[in-house]
């Protein structure tokens, strides 16, 4: 039967169906577009935006203190001693500049070349979006020995901008902070529970992120007050990124003194700190205009390229690598490294790949960072030959281990263990072949395996007993990992492969349940298994394939 065109109904889609969202309505309508999510992470982004407005003041050399208060009733207050928000009438819209900044998207002082040449806020959601997502907000600004304020509800002003005179509504902030300084801004807000899944700030996230900003803006003093637990925290660092990597390496043994590189090239300020530890896993933190770029970006690419080139050049120059030897790889040079990469550049040129600023997109950052880091490392190696020797020796050991791991994996592959070989004999597999509905229960020992087999549904539930505690893979290279029979059995059962031949699409189970005993040993085994997945099969976790069985707390008996 031939297809027939259905009659069109023009009245179903006309001009009246086109919604025009005015003011801050788009933010409340689609909050995820502005803060990523409405959960705990989204709440932090709201807090971060207000804090970073004050940090921008500090980067413009206009602020030296930031106060952050988390109140018992989930109100959050951020204050600074910067220049304050202008409160005079905006010539274009005929309203106070304070009201415009807080109620109009993309309004602010960071879009021109004047006040804020370097700022993290250009691509941010902005204070106005935070205002839209807040049940209540008050902004107080002090300039020229006068203080003005405005209250808002869900982004809408409750009254015109008013002046606070000494004695009128003199809040504690006005007395201690504003009246004691020539200028500043104080913002108090409470997230709207109608939109946000949680309105209670996570103190651990706040402390970690604020501490990072103190590392990144040397000389800026952060004062944090936790009103819930009545405690204070103060962060101030003179040495910036060097202090950061020392903190990151405090539980590890360092191989050499920290390397610090700082240079401005073609209007991009590049700052890098590097220190190798006795561990195996790399730790890289990157920032652009104080914003943490958790997914890296072009500046990290430039750093990695320069690091590998500089180490290879020095290794050949010092005779560690002969003419016939292959170059050290990026994987080798990153093993055990702790590094922080931070760039600052003109806000108007700054490009992030998302509103939440997780990845830097400026193509010009790659060659500039690469040049600065390469030349900086060349100088460091020449001036610090003992540290250079320690770094090269560590990287060469990593290269040898990589080759040994590849040989070990190849040997296993030649035996057909990972691909096309038989499944482990102790695996009680399920009948189902669709991984989306198949489950694998990893249990502790043969006795637990027997009980699990009796209680399972063999149609879709498989059981794999592991004998004893598996290897701690946190400090083990792949060649050592592959020598451990229990891990080898687990990888074979999963079907994903391991190392550079991983294919997560070949996973035989989309639900892997860690079912260990409800005692200290069981908790330890569960931790070891999670460590293995985190280090060697991380996408099993990010895809949501890993589960933890919770032991029952009570037993109900009948009769």
TrEMBL record:
Single Gene Ontology BP annotation: DNA topological change
Coiled-coil positions: none
GO molecular function: ATP binding; DNA binding; DNA topoisomerase type II (double strand cut, ATP-hydrolyzing) activity; metal ion binding
Catalytic reactions on record: ATP-dependent breakage, passage and rejoining of double-stranded DNA
Domain Toprim per the UniProt entry, residue ranges: 438-552
Gene3D superfamilies xref list: 3.30.230.10, 3.40.50.670, Histidine kinase-like ATPase, C-terminal domain (3.30.565.10)
EC number: 5.6.2.2
SUPFAM superfamilies found in the cross-reference section: ATPase domain of HSP90 chaperone/DNA topoisomerase II/histidine kinase (SSF55874), Ribosomal protein S5 domain 2-like (SSF54211), Type II DNA topoisomerase (SSF56719)
CC cofactor: Mg(2+)
Keywords: ATP-binding, DNA-binding, Isomerase, Magnesium, Metal-binding, Nucleotide-binding, Topoisomerase
Family: Belongs to the type II topoisomerase GyrB family.
PANTHER family per record: DNA GYRASE SUBUNIT B, MITOCHONDRIAL (PTHR45866:SF1), DNA GYRASE/TOPOISOMERASE SUBUNIT B (PTHR45866)
Entry-linked NCBIfam families: PRK05644.1
Record-given protein name: DNA topoisomerase (ATP-hydrolyzing)
């Amino acid at each position: 039967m031939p297809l027939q065109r259905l009659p069109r109904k023009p009245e179903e889609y006309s001009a009246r169906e086109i919604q025009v969202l005015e003011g801050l309505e788009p933010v409340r309508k689609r909050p995820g577009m502005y803060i990523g999510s409405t959960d705990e992470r989204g709440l932090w982004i709201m807090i971060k935006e207000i804090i970073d407005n004050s940090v921008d003041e500090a980067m413009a050399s206009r602020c030296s203190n930031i106060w952050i208060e988390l109140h018992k009733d989930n109100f959050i207050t951020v204050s600074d001693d910067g220049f304050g928000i202008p409160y005079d009438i905006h010539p274009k819209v005929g309203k106070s500049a304070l009201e415009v900044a807080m109620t109009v998207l993309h309004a602010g002082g960071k879009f021109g070349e004047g006040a804020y040449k370097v700022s993290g806020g250009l691509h941010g959601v902005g204070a106005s979006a935070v205002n839209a997502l807040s049940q209540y907000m008050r902004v107080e600004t002090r300039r020229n020995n006068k203080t003005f304020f405005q209250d808002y509800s869900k982004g809408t002003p409750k009254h015109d901008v008013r002046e606070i005179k000494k004695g009128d509504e003199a809040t504690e902030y006005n007395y201690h902070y504003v009246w004691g300084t020539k200028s500043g801004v104080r913002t108090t807000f409470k997230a709207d529970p109608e939109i946000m899944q949680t309105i209670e700030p996570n103190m651990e996230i706040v402390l970690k992120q604020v501490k990072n900003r103190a590392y990144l803006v040397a000389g800026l003093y952060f004062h944090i007050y936790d009103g819930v637990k009545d405690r204070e925290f103060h962060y101030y660092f003179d040495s910036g990124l060097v202090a950061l990597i020392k903190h990151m390496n405090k539980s590890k043994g360092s191989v050499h003194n920290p390397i610090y590189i700082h240079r401005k090239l073609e209007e991009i300020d590049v700052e890098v700190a590097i220190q190798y530890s006795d561990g195996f896993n790399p730790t890289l933190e990157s920032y652009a205009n104080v914003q943490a770029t958790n997914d890296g970006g072009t500046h990290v690419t430039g750093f990695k390229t320069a690091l590998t080139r500089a180490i290879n050049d020095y290794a050949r120059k010092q005779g560690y690598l002969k003419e016939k030897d292959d170059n050290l790889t990026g994987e080798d040079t990153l093993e055990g490294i702790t590094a922080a990469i931070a760039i600052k550049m003109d806000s108007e040129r700054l490009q992030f790949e998302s509103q939440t600023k997780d990845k830097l997109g400026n193509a010009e950052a790659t060659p500039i960072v690469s040049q600065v880091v390469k030349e900086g490392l060349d100088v460091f190696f020449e001036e610090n030959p003992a540290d250079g020797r320690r770094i090269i020796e560590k990287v060469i050991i990593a290269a040898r281990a990589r080759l040994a791991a590849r040989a070990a994996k190849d040997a296993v592959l030649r035996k057909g263990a990972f691909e096309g070989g038989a499944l482990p004999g102790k695996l009680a597999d399920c009948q189902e072949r669709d991984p989306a509905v198949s489950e694998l229960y990893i249990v502790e020992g043969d006795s637990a395996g027997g009980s699990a087999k009796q209680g399972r549904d063999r149609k879709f539930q498989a059981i794999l007993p592991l004998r004893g505690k598996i290897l701690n893979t946190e400090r083990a290279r792949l060649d050592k990992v592959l020598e451990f029979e229990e891990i080898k059995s687990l990888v074979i059962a999963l079907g994903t492969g391991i190392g550079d031949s991983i294919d997560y699409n070949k996973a035989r189970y989309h639900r892997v349940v860690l079912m260990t005993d409800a005692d200290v040993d069981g908790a330890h085994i569960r931790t070891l298994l999670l460590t293995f997945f985190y280090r060697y099969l991380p996408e099993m976790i990010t895809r949501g394939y890993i589960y933890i069985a919770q032991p029952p707390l009570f037993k109900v008996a009948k009769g």
